[in-house]
């Protein structure tokens, strides 16, 4: 069975803030649970400067092959400024927000399925926004779906479409940093 792993980088970053983990150890645990290799792996996230950040130490390590790194393709998208007004205080402020990553993940889920790259998808994400993409590849393209994440922030919509839910809390002894 050919398996692909797609990572929502912002989601796993937030997971790691409360429970630090090692991506290489996580990939090894997913390979063990999968019963065989992961054919393709992708990490999608946003950044202030995607071209420079492609070369930073973390992203270079993510691209590196085992035993040095987890051998994951890294795709970064530029953060966008969101201008907002405070309705109660008449103040204006700007903050950076992630734009385009969820659409890119949903597109990648569908594109790789249509191309026949995978029979099983492991999605490390918690966002219910992926429900339509997951529903399509599961129901129409007959692909197997696994989701991986935390109990506290895993969309029930994603859980309902998955063939397997891999709870990171259960893996923590093996993936902890």
TrEMBL record:
<dbReference type="InterPro" id="IPR047140">
    <property type="entry name" value="LabA"/>
</dbReference>
<protein>
    <submittedName>
        <fullName>NYN domain-containing protein</fullName>
    </submittedName>
</protein>
<dbReference type="Pfam" id="PF01936">
    <property type="entry name" value="NYN"/>
</dbReference>
<dbReference type="InterPro" id="IPR021139">
    <property type="entry name" value="NYN"/>
</dbReference>
<feature type="domain" description="NYN">
    <location>
        <begin position="2"/>
        <end position="168"/>
    </location>
</feature>
């Amino acid at each position: 069975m050919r398996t692909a792993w797609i990572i929502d980088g912002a989601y796993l970053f937030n997971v790691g803030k409360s429970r630090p983990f090692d991506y290489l150890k996580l990939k090894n645990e997913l390979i063990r649970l999968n019963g065989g290799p992961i054919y393709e792996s992708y990490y999608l996230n946003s950044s202030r400067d995607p071209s420079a950040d492609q070369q930073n130490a973390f992203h270079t390590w993510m691209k590196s092959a085992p035993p040095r790194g987890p051998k994951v393709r890294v795709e970064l998208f530029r953060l966008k400024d969101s201008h907002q007004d405070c309705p109660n205080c008449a103040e204006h402020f700007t903050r950076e927000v992630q734009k385009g990553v969820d659409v890119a993940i949903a597109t990648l889920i569908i594109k790789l399925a249509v191309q026949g790259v995978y029979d099983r998808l492991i999605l490390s994400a918690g966002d219910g926004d992926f429900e339509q993409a997951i529903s399509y590849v599961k129901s129409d393209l007959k692909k197997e779906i696994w989701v991986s994440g935390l109990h506290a922030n895993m969309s029930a919509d994603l859980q309902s479409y998955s063939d397997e839910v891999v709870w990171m809390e259960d893996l923590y002894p093996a993936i902890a940093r």
